[in-house]
Amino acid sequence: MARLTGEIAKCFEESNRLQEQIKKNLGPSAMACEQMALQDVCELIVDCPHTSAKDEEVGYPLIRTPNVGRGRLILTDVHRVSQDVYERRVSRAVPWQGDLILAREAPVGNVAIVSPGIEVYLGQRTMLLRPDSSFVVPEYLNYYLNVPEQRDRMLRLANGATVSHINVADIRNMPVQLPFRREQSKVAELLSVLDDKIDLNNRLNDYLLAA
Q1: Which of 60, 63, 97, 182 has its CA 20 to 30 A from that of 116?
Q2: Following CA atoms 7, 13, 15, 20 in sequence, which dihedral angle do they give, to the nearest 10 degrees?
Q3: Which residues pair with 112 in a beta bridge?
Q4: Quick check: 27 and 147 in contact, CB under 8 A?
């Protein structure tokens, strides 16, 4: 058991090291092409409904800001609503696979991708970004927006006397520089494999610690 735990820890450390090394190369200087505004590489940028919904404990996941992790949605203890509430609250846009959800507040700037097979809707203080697949690979844009350089940019855009938040217009106009789509695919594929490996290592480690 101790040997297995040590191997998992070693694998986790190596995966993290490789991931951070690659993510450092996702800044504007890496294989950069023409600078564009974020809205120019998205088919759709939609703000959330500005009202809250009561947690009904079963049904469709309501994505609030705590559910927007760095890269992936956190569905542990997520609030849920009925189909009727869901259908009323997706009138602006129905989030689908490959869409990105951005937290405008607490934590400012976290971005997570909508995975296959889940139906979610936007809670307060979130935004939906739908990447234009002719310009950008959704998985790549997800990683790109989560690198430290881009997160720092969003933090600088944030304002608010008590709680920092980002304005929708600032997100729309946020400059991005992306490599050619072929390069995006290569980087996104590699980072996705590393993310899956880290996720598996985390789950195995949690299991061993609980045993």
Answers
A1: 182
A2: 180
A3: 71, 101
A4: yes
